[in-house]
Each structure stands twice: as structure tokens, then as C-alpha cells.
Amino acid sequence: MTKRSLRTSTGRGLEPWPVLGLLLLTVVVPTACVLWFMSAAMRNERLAVRQRLTQAYRQHALAAQEALEKHWLDKQRALAKADKLPAARIFAELVTSGVADSVVVYDKAGQLEYPLLEAPLAAEPDEPSSPWLAAGELEYQQRLPGKAAEAYATIPREAKDRNLTARALRAQARCLAQAGRKHEAVVILTGPLASAELRGARGAGGRLIAPDALLLALELAEETDSRQFRALAGKLADRLSDYGDPAMPSGQRRFLMLALREVAPDVPAFPTLAAEHLAAEYLEARPPPARPLQLSRAPGDLWNFPSAGGEVAAIFRTETLLAEMRSAGRLDEPFAGATLALVRPGSPPAEAEAVLAVAAPRQMPGWKLELRLAGEEPFAAAASRRNAIYLWTGIVGIVIIAVLALMVGRFVSRQMRLARLKNDLIATVSHELKTPLASIRVLVDTLLAGRYQDQWQAREYFSLIARENERLTRLIDNFLTFSRMERKKVAFEFGPVKLDEVVAAAVEAMADRLNGPNCKLEVRVAPDLPAITADRDALVTVLLNLLDNAYKYSKDDKRIAVRAYEADANVCLEVADNGIGLSRRAAKNIFDRFYQVDQSLTRSAGGCGLGLSIVKFIVDAHGGSIDVATQPGKGSSFTVRLPVGGAAGAAGSRKD
Fold first, then answer.
1. pLDDT per position as a tens digit, 107-117
2. 548 Cβ contact partners less than 8 Å away, ≥ 6 residues apart
3. How far from 635 is each of 552, 555, 577, CA to CA, in Å?
4. Do 458 and 571 lie in a common domain?
5. How many domains does the chain divide into?
6. pTM for this predicted structure
7. What is the Cα–Cα distance from 621 to 298, expressed in whole angstroms?
8. Per the omega criterion (within 30 degrees of 0), is the bond before 115 cis?
9. Residue 534 belongs to domain spanning
10. Do 432 and 508 belong together in one domain?
11. 116-141 pLDDT, tens digit each
12. Backbone dihedral region of 203: left (phi > 0), alpha (psi from -120 to 50 degrees) or beta?
């Protein structure tokens, strides 16, 4: 009943693994070569694109470098031209013209000229008989500001120094303001103190007195929206914007600019105020000396650019410098899908890789111009098309190789399977035919030699010869059926068939064995079963094979049941036994050709493992199905289901 792939002494079965391994090697090697060539072609294409990009962009980078160098040459000329002016005028000229954010001016000896350091003058007179002492006593000790103002008023009549005169007038105005006589104080502050003779008068700290007096007059003014107030504020603003002689200290100028904006908010902004603050910040950081005509870094994120002689140092903030360089070199304008970036010394590397790097002009040591792609590469489309061609060519080649290898593999596998089937068939035929032929030969030799006791023993020998002959006939029929199955030459003659006739024919054919003393047969055929369209002889063959298996693989006390009934629009043929049963694994493979549970040549049950495969072939040709319910040691039950009506006929009306 059951079977497994059988090998006999006819030779070892053909192993497919060496052939399949060689076939796999013939696929892997060309595939690897195709992939390597494809990868190399794509890499070379990328390198070629990068080279074309470099050649196309180099001229653009060199043009930007030339524009930046021209920009710095213009600054050099501006510094050299302004170097002939006074220090304060140099500062104002370079800042207001936009040459630099701020400027620091030195003399030939390297001493700072502007921003101007405050130089203290001589202290006020402190002799006991001095009018200063008397006026100071009235102001600070006796708290008599009115009399103090009269005392200070006498000093300018005898003073021969304009500084002392201006200081006395300022003190007189201060005391008048303290005494509540603001109008008189404003008259002094805007009159004598604002005269041309006292324009350059300075106080003890080197500060110009006249600008401070104007601020005090604005603070004492009672009407801030009057024409006089606006005129006075404009006069002070003009004085603060005047960088001519006498030069005002930078600290005083910054203070007065801020104070004036608070007193008179309508005054226009001072264009040099930020530069004044920046110069003070630069000097407080004490920057190291810089090389002339070279941009160098200073503390506080500042940069300086000294003139050829070093007397004038242009100061730049980093953000201003970068914006100015981008504008001068037109770095923000995309060029054929790329942009130029100015990279200062010590800056971290950018995320985008630079296609090309060019040194900045000689005035900017350590700076670089890096060209980066601003999106898709200009030649990326062409490169992508070529890479796509390489890729698809490689894929098509690999697919062709794989398909050819698959076809060859299937052909080789089929040929090897046929060779194994041929070897198994030869081994099985040799074994299965040898056994009945040997038995028949022994019995015939015994009869010919007269070695029997009586006619009954001779009759028994003839019965044994008949059974062996019947067994031999079934084997040959199975082999022929299998051969026709393999060559697809099996022909079925379909017509109306009743299952009770099929069961009766099969049981009658095996009556000698099924009716023996050690076998109990039970036949149940449901009445009024519908007829089906089928090949009667083929169905008899199915039932004979199932009964033969049930008989061979049952125990000594054999109990076999044959049932025919209708269920779910199908007619069913069921053969059950109390035999050895099957394992779950064996039940899955039981319908395979030449499969046997017991593969030894000395197995007790005969057969070549073709019966159930023939059964399944016939059932499939009739559009039906077969399954097995089994348990080891408790027997098996095979059920054949055939469709009622024209289903079976439709499924099997052809000749295979």
C-alpha cells in the first residue's frame, strides 16, 4: 500500500546537487561580472560629471576671486587717499563713505590719534586769594548759588586764557540755574559760550566746553517744541557731526550723541555713532598688530585691514564683512546650479561637499572660495540617463542569464527525475517480477518432477501458480498504466456508471482472497445512488487497488469494509481496514509515485508503490478527490469523492 523511493543494486541514484551547483556557478559568475562592470561604469560616469563640473565652474570662481581682489584694491586706495586728512576727518570720511564699519587712526610713531584720548589740562586755580576759591566757597559751602554766580562773572574780565574764561562762564550758568534763573543761564550758554572765540576751549578732562554748554541749555529749556529749541538742537547735532578742528574727544562725542537723542528725539540719527562705539570696543580689546594690506582677525569677532603705512586701520564686523564680500563677488547669484561660498579661517566644514575650492585674494590670507551645488547637478539628468541605461542593461542581462539558467535547470532536473524514475522502475520491476516468477518456476519444477503426494496437493500447487500469475498480471498492468501516465497516453471511455456495479465487479475479482477464513468483508451500498459519468473499468481499477492495499496491510484477523454513499453532491467510495495504519508524514506522501513506508527489499508485503499514485491519477481525471484518515496501529480509511451529474464527465471527457 505504501512506498518510498527505492534503490537497488542497479546503481546509485543520480544526485542533482553537483549539476545544480555547477549551474548556479554559471549564473553567479556572469552576474557578478555584470554587476562589477555596471558599478564601474556608473562610478566613471560620476567622475566624468564631476570633472566637467570642475572645468565649467572654475572660470566662475576665478572671476569672483578677481572681483574680490578689485574690491580690496579699491579699499586700499580709499585708505591711502584719506591718510592725508586729519585723524578725525579720516574717521568720518571712511565711515560715512562705507569703506569700513569703523576706523582707528595712528600717527607715524604708532601713537593713537583717533578715537582721541582725553588729555587733562591744568587744574583750576587754588590760591586763597583767587576768585575761584571765593566763588567755590559760595557755591559749595555756603550754598549761595546767586552770589556764587556773581563771583564767577568777575573772572572772565581778568582772565587771559580762553579755557579759564569758558570754564567761568559755564560755572556762572550752572549757579544761575541752581538759583532758578534758568533763562539767564540759557542766555550765557547760547551766547558767550557759543562764540567762535571759545569754540576750542576745553575743560580739565580735555572735553570741549561749548558742546556741553549747548546740551545744558537744551536741558534747561522750558519749551521743547519751540523753534529756538529745535534750532539749538540742530546746532548741537551739527557740531557733533563735525570732525574738523578743534577735534572732540570720542568719549565726549558718544556721550553727547546719546544724550541729545534723549533730550531731542526728533534729531536725525548720527551715521558715525555705531562706528564710535565699535572703535572704542576695538581699542578696549587691545588687538595685536596686524600686517599692512592684509585682513586679520581681532578680538570680539572683529576684523581689521591696515593701510600700507599702518596709520589707518579699517575695522569690520564679521557679518558686515561677509555681506560686503558676497555683494562684491556676486556670491549669492546662482551660476548653473551652483553657488560660491566665502569660508573664513577656522570655520567648521559645511554639510554639502565643495565641488571646487579656490583661495581668496591675497588681501584675505586663509580665506577660501568654495563652490557648492545649489540643487541637482546640471549634468545629473544626463548622468542619470546613462546610469539608467547601464542599470537596465545589467538587469536585462542578469534576467536573461537567470531565465536561461532556470530553463536549463528545469530541463536538467526533469531529465534527472526521469532517469531516477527509470532506475527506480527497473529496480522495482526486477524485484517485483522476480518474486512471482521464482515461485511459479519452483511450483512448475515440483509438478514436472512428480514430487507431490496426491491430486489434491497438485491442485493446491496449481492454485498457487494461478494466484502468482494473477499477481504478476496486476503488476504488469500497473507498470503499463504507469507508463501510459508518464507518456500522457491514458484514454478514458466515459459513460453512465452505477457504483453498485463497480463495487460488485471489484469484490468479485478479489473474491478468493476477501472470502478467506482470516478475512471478514463488509459491503454497504446505499440504495438509489445516482449514476455518474465515468470510465467503469477505471473505477474498478481504483477500487481493486484500494482493496488490495487493505488486504495486504491488514493484520492476521482482517476486517475490511467497502461503502458507497452520497454526500454533498458527490458519490463516495470508502475502503476501510484494521491494518497497520500510517504516520502523519507517510499520509502526506502516500500518493507519490514509488513511495513506500517500508523501503527494504525484504518487506513482507509486495508491490512497487504505484497503486495509489494510479488511483489518484484516475480520480483526478474524473474531477474527483481522494483523502485518507489513518492512525498508526488502528487502520486506515480511504475515501474517493466523485461529482454527481456532468462534472466528472466534463473533467474527464478528454483523452490524456
1. 888 888 888 75
2. 474, 510, 611
3. 12, 9, 5
4. no
5. 3
6. 0.53
7. 98
8. yes
9. 490-652
10. no
11. 755 544 444 444 447 888 888 888 88
12. beta
